Amino acid sequence: MARQRRALRTTDVFHVVIVMTAILVLIVVAHYIFFSETNTLFTLSDDDLDLPAKRRSPIRRSLNISIVVVVNDESNLEEYKFALDTVRCYALMHNYTLLIVSGHQYHRCRQRDTMFRRHCVVAEILRTTDWVLFIDADIGIVNPTR
User: Fold this and answer.
1) Is tRNA-binding among this UniProt entry's keywords (predicted)?
2) CA distance 70 to 101
3) Model confidence, pTM
4) In this structure, are 1 and 54 located in the same domain?
5) Are residues 38 and 107 in the same domain?
């Protein structure tokens, strides 16, 4: 009976330590989220929004940034026309390169599964560009201020 009480007390102490550690972690995270000056998670000024009347990004960029859309069947592009037009507009506004490529035109990517082939194509494109935004053809870009 005495051993059971001792074991019970040890586990109680263990649980208290776990609970106190969890509370401490929550306090640190809450402090970071709500009181950190470098955190921009909850602050958004008008300067951060890309409004039509505001100035656009400069034409010259030090980084080569590409938006990549890999399609498997080019005959389906008409289905994605509206979404691709929004991406095209966004790329023009920010002077990004928009690449709409077929997964079959990269001969080094011989994967049978189309998903693996798409990632191989993006890896090939990454050889010639600094940054890539890889999206599906049905993804559109929305301006929440309109």
Assistant:
1) no
2) 5
3) 0.56
4) no
5) no
